[in-house]
């Protein structure tokens, strides 16, 4: 029953994507650990971490697409869920430092010692256990999303209004986390991690392990999202996106459906953030900035919203471009990113995968149904 | 007749938008199994009346009772729909991205809670019912087409099919034959008359030929309240009705 | 013998000649270097008798320990360290007298008794100054120093004083001295009353002192006075907050009002709105550079020239954006949001490439510098002008939308596009001009913001979220809503700040708006009815 549920959403695109992920999960460890450093097949731990970062972003993009592409909620605040997940993981990693910090305090992270705190704040308790942190990674973003969505969807805040208040949400969180007395390290955030689950976080093997974990998480997220989208619930979500009031007159409490997708999406974003933090080695409040949320939106738009493979593709492509340009032509990157926003919205409203589907449809005159997102109504 | 026996009971319902009175102390009674045609000039409050019954608009004053006991004015749209009130819109509103089959499956009477729909898979009876509706609405050949690709008339029929799938006690049908050919109009009239045996129906329509075809009691709305009620012939003879609506 | 003669002469002159004979001061000054403390004190007294303001710098130099006697001729000079020796100047005229070896001069020493005399004399001298402003300052100085030695001088000065404000300052100074020093209870209680009248922070501090040390009667009076002063201070504090709130509100209004046009009237989400503000600020910078280059004398007018320039530049950029991007996206607000966000990134980078990433210096004209006091309020001219300017812009926009043909066209297109088109209104042109108008107003905001914020490529980023909050809070499509929204948010923000701190205050405001929108999704001044549903 459960297997059938998870398999029902898988189509050809999913097959391709999952195969690529499986190949990555095998090839990258072999190339990183099993080859000599001077071999042409060797990839450095730095590259492994970079790839891992891209895949974390891909998972974030996937979660964003679940609400934007399939329910029509353009969230400009998904960075909030991503970063909260990241902080939950970061808190675990901070606790693992133990007495190896600069001040050698076994109970308090360095920044708390620096602030002359004498006691661990209550909300830091439990984060020394991995299982606890792992739950919080999903629970905290999930609860925030649930509370926010419960109010917003009940009051029928939609369209750009919703987008703007999601932006305000992440902005408020950013301001809050910048404050030292919040107890999350203020400006500097959480960093200088040593170990995860007892493994040295800098070691090549740990990096590879984290990468494989990210691949698995992305694949799992993809399969879950496919199953949800293919279920009758997914059909209701698409119907909400295209004609919400009609769905209400059919007797569906659309608020609850939106809340379900929204909360699920936030949990996925939280997992992405949690995997991101040990691979980049730091989490700080600037990750909350509205700009990062909007950047995630463009990944989805480039790949093709309303398809699940699109956001994954888009996130990897755009971030690869970002890594390349910010190193080679730093001045050029913002022009390129800005131009991408304009060009995609004007000329590629369905993204790369949408374009591919259009081109394919044009050859044989057979109508295949691609989930084309309709325009959000109402200002 | 007591209110207990009515299916729908509206009493003194008023709605105003920024000073404009869309409904002005409207009172209306629909009995179980009854079909009623509502006519009236533009701005008479026909669509607003449907909005008020289905929970889209809250009335400023007045009572709306369903089956003589449930107060509709305090309920939200989905709750009202689940009581058994279905609605077809003036402009056909179907889910254009979904196939005809999926449109019907979404409308089919079934648990509406998210977790139920997440694990839902169509039973044999469900599939049989959808096939049946596809036959009635003559959409069987189109079952796998996206609803957005249907013609205007087909969309009207699909929406009626969606109403059938919902299996409501009361159907509110807003201009079902707008943009249909004469033959289609006639078929639609037959279809609605078939439905009326088991369900109550309120039809809002401009097309007098169609209303005559239905041959049911007619209510004339004007400026948000009832101007006249009776058979089409009776109201057609009413001087006031002629003045405001039918013309000379 | 020689010195004694001089002193006699000086005394004689002091008695015989009143203040007018500045030249005759020289011998008196020479007397300062006579030798013993007693003689110096006499000389100071003599100088004080003259009541001549020219004496003040001399005594100040004495107080600072800069006054020396030149051993060669016994002349009293101001000597300041320069290299190994001293640079000498004449204490009265300030004329340079060359340099001297360290051993060639001898410092005129003063003891504590003398120090008191000096400050009293200084106080008294300035209290007698012919200039009312100086007298008032002197009184304030005494008020702060609470120097009992100044009491006699104060009494004398008070007796002669005619200027009402100076009198008040002197009375307060006298009260301060009395309260701090030894005085009969009756005098102290009278002083308490005077200080209560003054009612500021300083008065409260003095009264606090009295409440702790005085006799029971004085304590009682002081306690009552403190209560009254604190009430009054709270009132002024509230007024000051109100002013800050109004000031912040007017900044928000300026930033948001252009957005109210593009978002509220046209339904277009312009995420590049902040960059229009930023462009306006850079236009101001360029205009000022031009003035610095070619007409530095007219610098005070540069802001006035910058206003139309910024309006036109930002407006032109806005029209270009509308024609090239936004017109393809009407009816798709979320896509518009993304595209304009992309534009904002590109515009920021463009400005960064051209002008560099650092802040640019934009100066304030003289009529916008400085501050004035209004009761217990301190108001800077810059802020005042921005408040005035914000309301002027608001009023002008209101009139433009209500009374001009262009405004009529905008409203027609907003309400029914196809009907407006059928009536012969060129809707495409109206769209472009409306967007240009909104952007141009953002440019005007940029001129104002260049006066109070750093002109950098990130200038606009700081305002975009706040501006959206204002428009959404106030209610879309309603300029009055924007006004009320801006002032309310500005006010709430500033009233929260003292209790919660700036950052937390801002967070609370954001949370408040998030909750508010959920209560009233269409803002404070919402349109109702069927038109909204469409």
Automatic annotation (TrEMBL), chain B:
<dbReference type="Pfam" id="PF00005">
    <property type="entry name" value="ABC_tran"/>
</dbReference>
<feature type="domain" description="ABC transporter">
    <location>
        <begin position="8"/>
        <end position="248"/>
    </location>
</feature>
<dbReference type="InterPro" id="IPR017781">
    <property type="entry name" value="ABC_transptr_urea_ATP-bd_UrtD"/>
</dbReference>
<keyword id="KW-0547">Nucleotide-binding</keyword>
<protein>
    <submittedName>
        <fullName>Urea ABC transporter ATP-binding protein</fullName>
    </submittedName>
</protein>
<dbReference type="InterPro" id="IPR051120">
    <property type="entry name" value="ABC_AA/LPS_Transport"/>
</dbReference>
<dbReference type="InterPro" id="IPR027417">
    <property type="entry name" value="P-loop_NTPase"/>
</dbReference>
<dbReference type="InterPro" id="IPR003439">
    <property type="entry name" value="ABC_transporter-like_ATP-bd"/>
</dbReference>
<dbReference type="GO" id="GO:0016887">
    <property type="term" value="F:ATP hydrolysis activity"/>
</dbReference>
<keyword id="KW-0067">ATP-binding</keyword>
<dbReference type="GO" id="GO:0005524">
    <property type="term" value="F:ATP binding"/>
</dbReference>
<dbReference type="GO" id="GO:0005886">
    <property type="term" value="C:plasma membrane"/>
</dbReference>
<keyword id="KW-0813">Transport</keyword>
């Amino acid at each position: 029953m459960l297997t059938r549920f998870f398999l029902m959403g898988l189509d050809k695109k999913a097959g391709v994507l999952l195969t690529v992920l499986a190949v990555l999960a095998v090839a990258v460890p072999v190339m990183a650990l099993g080859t000599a450093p001077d071999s042409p097949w060797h990839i450095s731990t730095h590259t492994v971490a970079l790839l891992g970062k891209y895949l974390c972003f891909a998972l974030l993009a996937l979660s964003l697409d679940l609400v934007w592409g399939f329910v029509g909620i353009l969230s400009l605040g998904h960075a909030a869920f991503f970063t909260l997940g990241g902080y939950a993981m970061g808190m675990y990693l901070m606790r693992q430092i133990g007495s190896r910090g600069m001040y050698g305090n076994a109970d308090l992270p360095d920044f708390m010692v620096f602030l002359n705190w004498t006691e661990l704040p209550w909300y830091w308790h439990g984060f020394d256990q991995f299982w606890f942190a792992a739950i919080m990674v999903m629970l905290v973003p999930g609860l925030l999303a649930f509370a926010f969505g419960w109010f917003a969807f009940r009051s029928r805040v939609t369209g750009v209004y919703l987008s703007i208040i999601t932006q305000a949400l992440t902005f408020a969180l950013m301001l809050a986390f910048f404050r030292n007395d919040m107890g999350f390290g203020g400006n500097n955030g959480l960093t200088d991690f040593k170990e995860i689950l007892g493994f040295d976080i800098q070691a090549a093997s740990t990096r590879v392990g984290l990468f494989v974990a990210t691949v698995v998480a992305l694949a799992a997220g993809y399969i879950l999202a496919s199953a949800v989208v293919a279920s009758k619930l997914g059909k209701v979500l698409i119907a909400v996106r295209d004609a919400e009031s009609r769905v209400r007159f059919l007797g569906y409490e659309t608020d609850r459906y939106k809340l379900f997708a929204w909360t699920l999406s936030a949990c996925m974003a939280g997992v992405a953030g949690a995997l991101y933090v040990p691979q980049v080695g730091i989490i700080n409040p600037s990750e909350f900035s509205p700009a990062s949320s909007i950047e995630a939106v463009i990944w989805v738009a480039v790949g093709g919203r309303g398809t699940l493979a699109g956001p994954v593709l888009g996130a990897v492509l755009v971030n690869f471009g970002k890594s390349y340009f910010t190193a080679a032509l730093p001045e050029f990157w913002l022009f390129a990113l800005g131009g991408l926003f304009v060009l995609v919205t004007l000329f590629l409203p369905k993204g790369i995968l949408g374009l591919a589907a259009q081109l394919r449809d044009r050859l044989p005159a057979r109508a295949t149904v691609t989930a084309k997102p309709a325009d959000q109504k109402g200002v | 007749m007591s209110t207990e026996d009515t299916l729908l009971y509206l009493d003194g319902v008023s709605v105003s938008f920024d000073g404009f009175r869309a409904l002005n102390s409207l009172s209306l009674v629909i009995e179980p199994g009854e079909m009623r045609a509502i006519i009236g000039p533009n701005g008479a409050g026909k669509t607003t009346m449907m909005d008020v019954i289905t929970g889209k608009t809250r009335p400023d004053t007045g009572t709306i009772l369903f089956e003589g006991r449930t107060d509709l004015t305090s309920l939200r749209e989905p709750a009202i729909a689940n009581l058994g009130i279905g609605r077809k819109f003036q402009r056909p509103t179907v889910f254009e991205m979904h196939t005809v089959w999926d449109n019907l499956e979404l409308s089919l009477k079934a648990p509406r809670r998210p977790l139920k729909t997440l694990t839902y898979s169509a039973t044999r009876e469900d599939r049989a019912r959808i096939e049946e509706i596809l036959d009635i609405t003559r959409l069987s050949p189109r079952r796998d087409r996206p609803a957005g690709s249907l013609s205007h008339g087909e969309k009207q029929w699909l929406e009626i099919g969606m109403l059938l799938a919902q299996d409501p006690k009361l159907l509110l049908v807003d201009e079902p034959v707008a943009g249909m050919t004469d033959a289609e109009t006639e078929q639609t009239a037959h279809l609605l008359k078939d439905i009326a045996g088991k369900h109550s129906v309120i039809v809002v329509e401009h097309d007098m030929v169609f209303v005559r075809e239905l041959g049911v009691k007619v209510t004339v709305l004007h400026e948000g309240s009832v101007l006249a009620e009776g058979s089409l012939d009776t109201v057609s003879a009413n001087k006031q009705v002629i003045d405001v609506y039918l013309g000379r | 013998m020689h010195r004694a003669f001089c002193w006699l002469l000086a005394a004689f002159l002091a008695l015989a000649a009143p203040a007018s004979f500045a030249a005759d001061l020289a011998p008196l000054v020479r007397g300062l270097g006579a030798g013993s403390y007693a003689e110096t004190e006499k000389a100071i007294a003599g100088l004080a008798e003259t009541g001549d303001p020219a004496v003040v710098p001399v005594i100040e130099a004495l107080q600072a320990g800069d006054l020396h006697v030149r051993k060669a001729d016994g002349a009293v000079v101001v000597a300041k360290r320069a290299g190994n020796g001293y640079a000498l100047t004449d204490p009265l005229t300030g004329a340079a007298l060359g340099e001297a070896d360290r051993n060639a001069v001898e410092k005129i020493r003063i003891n504590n008794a003398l120090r008191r005399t000096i400050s009293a004399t200084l106080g008294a001298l300035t209290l007698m100054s012919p200039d009312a402003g100086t007298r008032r300052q002197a009184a304030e100085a005494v008020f702060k120093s609470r120097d009992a030695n100044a009491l006699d001088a104060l009494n004398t000065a008070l007796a002669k004083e005619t200027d009402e404000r100076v009198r008040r300052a002197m009375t307060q100074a006298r009260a301060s001295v009395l309260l701090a020093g030894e005085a009969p209870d009756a005098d102290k209680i009278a002083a308490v009353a005077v200080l209560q009248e003054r009612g500021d922070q300083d008065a409260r501090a003095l009264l606090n002192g009295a409440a702790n040390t005085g006799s029971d009667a004085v304590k009682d009076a002081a306690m009552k006075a403190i209560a009254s002063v604190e009430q009054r201070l709270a009132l002024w504090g509230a007024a000051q907050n109100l002013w800050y709130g109004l000031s912040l509100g007017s900044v928000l209004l300026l930033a948001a009002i252009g957005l109210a046009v593009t978002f509220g009237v046209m339904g277009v989400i312009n995420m590049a709105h902040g960059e229009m503000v930023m462009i306006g600020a850079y236009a101001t910078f360029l205009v000022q550079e031009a003035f610095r280059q070619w007409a530095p004398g007219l610098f005070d007018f540069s802001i006035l020239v910058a206003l139309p320039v910024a309006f036109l530049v930002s407006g032109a950029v806005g029209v270009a954006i509308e024609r090239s991007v936004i017109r393809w996206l009407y009816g798709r607000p979320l896509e518009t949001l993304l595209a304009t966000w992309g534009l904002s990134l590109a515009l920021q980078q463009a400005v960064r490439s051209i002008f560099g990433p650092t802040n640019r210096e934009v100066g304030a004209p003289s009529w916008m510098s400085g501050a004035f006091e209004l009761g217990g309020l301190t108001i800077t001219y810059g802020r005042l002008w921005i408040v005035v300017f914000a309301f002027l812009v608001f009023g002008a926009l209101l009139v433009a939308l209500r009374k001009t043909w262009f405004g009529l066209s905008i409203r027609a297109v907003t309400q029914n596009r196809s009907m407006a088109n059928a009536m012969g209104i060129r809707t495409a042109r109206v769209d472009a001009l409306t967007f240009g108008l909104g952007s141009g107003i953002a440019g005007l905001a940029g001129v104002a913001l260049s006066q109070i914020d750093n002109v950098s490529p990130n200038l606009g980023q700081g305002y975009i979220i706040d501006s959206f909050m204002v428009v959404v809070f106030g209610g879309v499509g309603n300029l009055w809503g924007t006004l009320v929204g801006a002032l309310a948010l500005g006010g709430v923000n500033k009233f929260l700040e003292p209790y919660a701190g700036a950052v937390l205050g801002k967070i609370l405001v954001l949370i408040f708006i998030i909750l508010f929108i959920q209560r009233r999704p269409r803002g404070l001044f919402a349109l109702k009815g069927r038109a909204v549903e469409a």
